[in-house]
Amino acid sequence: MIEFNNLTRNRINERKVLNLVDNFLKSYRIEGDISIAVIGDCRMRRINNSYRGKDKTTDVLSFVDLNEILISFQQIKRQAKKYNKKVMEEFNFILVHGLLHLCGYKDEKELGRLEMIKLGNVFLDKYYKKNEKNKP
After folding, report:
1. With 0-12 CB in 10 A as exposed, 13-18 as middle and 19+ as buried, what is 107?
2. 11 Cβ partners below 8 Å, 6+ apart?
3. Contact 115/105 with Cβ under 8 angstroms?
4. Sequence-ordered strand ranges (E) for the chain
5. Per residue in 10-63, pLDDT tens?
6. With contact defined as beta carbons under 8 Å apart, do 8 and 39 qualify?
7. Helix, strand, or coil here: 5?
8. How many angstroms from the chain centroid is the CA of residue 63?
9. Between 20 and 30 A from 109 (CA), which of 11, 46, 52, 62?
10. Angle at 58 between CA 54 and CA 59, to 5 degrees
């Protein structure tokens, strides 16, 4: 089961998010429950400080033991503007990034970060080709 909670006032198409996550799970042959929550900067900053000792917001946190992903929508909007992307395009990329973390991928080192970026882009390219209507 995929649980999705949008705890912000931003409109996010839940059906599209669930479809993307379902496709990712099938592609990576992952079974089990996953929880995804979209939160604001303040909550993300508190959680990032509590769990990682970093007193700043971040785009995504993945908790492998809980199969849980937290995404800061405010940070996603800033990054979309910075990288000249649509907001939901950046959201999907970061969601896939969080899912890759749940699969055990790490990005603390540059090589791991680059591998995750590549894997995320490859998955999304295939996904959008197969699901044209879900393209942001």
Report:
1. middle
2. none
3. yes
4. 2-6, 34-39, 60-63, 68-72
5. 999 999 999 999 999 999 998 889 999 999 999 999 999 999 999 999 999 999
6. yes
7. strand
8. 12
9. 46
10. 160
Place of tokens 């055990």: 104
Q: What is the CATH number of the domain that holds 32?
A: 3.40.390.30
Quote the tokens at residue 119: 């894997």
Sort residue 29 into left (φ over 0), alpha (ψ -120 to 50) or beta: left
Q: What is the pLDDT of residues 90-129, one digit of tens each?
A: 999 999 999 999 999 999 899 999 999 999 999 999 999 9
**What is residue 9's three-state secondary structure?**
coil
SS3 content of the chain, % helix, strand, coil (to 5): 60, 15, 25
pTM above 0.90, yes or no: yes
Integer Cα distance of 22 and 20 in angstroms = 5
Q: Which domain, by its residues, includes 32?
A: 2-134
**Full strand arrangement of the beta sheet holding 68-72:** 2-6, 34-39, 68-72, 60-63
